[in-house]
C-alpha cells in the first residue's frame, strides 16, 4: 500500500449551512480535515449527515458558506477533490446483479487485486456468488473491499461504513482505517456507533457546532 505524503491534502469547511424543503439542517459548521486526520460525524436521524457528505462531494443541492479542497473553493475544485476521493455512500454502490469480483472490476480493479481485497474482508469463496444472494453484512463487505485496492485514494468519505457489520467486521474496518490514517490518508465518516481509533475527532451535527481546531497533521489553523 502506498504512503500518502502528509500535509498534501486538506478539506476545509467554513460556516457551512444547508436547508432542505425550507428546513435548516445545520448552520455555522466549520472544520478542517487534513492528511492523517479522522472525523466521525454524529447526529440524530435526519440531522443531515448524509446531506453534508453528499454536499462535500458535489452531489447535493445548494449550500451556504465555503468548501475548499487544498485551499481552492468548490465547485471549481471539485474535479481535483474527486480525483483524491474514495466515497462509499449509504447505499454502498454494490450492484446486486453482479458478483463481488465483478463489482470490484467495475471500479477498475485488476482480478488479482480484487481477489486479495475480497479475502481481506473475509469473502474468500464468495467472489463468484451474485451479490443479491449475499447477506446485508456481506454486501457491506463487498463495498468495503474497495478500501483494500492498491490505488485507494487519500481522502475517504464513508457513510455508515459499520452498518450491518458483525464484531469481526467492525474490528477489521477499524484496523484498516487506522492504517490509512497512519499512512497520511484522511477519513470523514458517519456512524452511530463508537469506533476505537486513535486521535479520532467527533462532530455532532445535531449541535450544529464548530470544531475547535484542525483535524489531522497538516497545519495549525483554527476555526470557531
Ligand atoms: N433532496 C432532498 N429533498 C428534500 N429533503 C431532503 C433531501 N435530502 C435530504 N432531505 C431531508 O433532510 C433531512 C436530513 O437527511 P439526511 O439523510 O442527511 O440525514 P442523516 O443525518 O444522514 O440521517 P440518518 O441518521 O437517518 O441516516 C431529512 O429530513 C431528509 O428527508
From TrEMBL:
Keywords linked to the UniProt accession: ATP-binding, Cytochrome c-type biogenesis, Membrane, Nucleotide-binding, Translocase, Transport
Domain ABC transporter: 11-224
Keyword Cell cycle included in the entry's annotation: no
Entry superkingdom: Bacteria
Gene3D superfamilies reported for this sequence: P-loop containing nucleotide triphosphate hydrolases
Pfam families assigned: ABC_tran (PF00005)
NCBIfam families: ccmA (TIGR01189), PRK13538.1 (NF010061)
Name of this chain's protein: Cytochrome c biogenesis heme-transporting ATPase CcmA
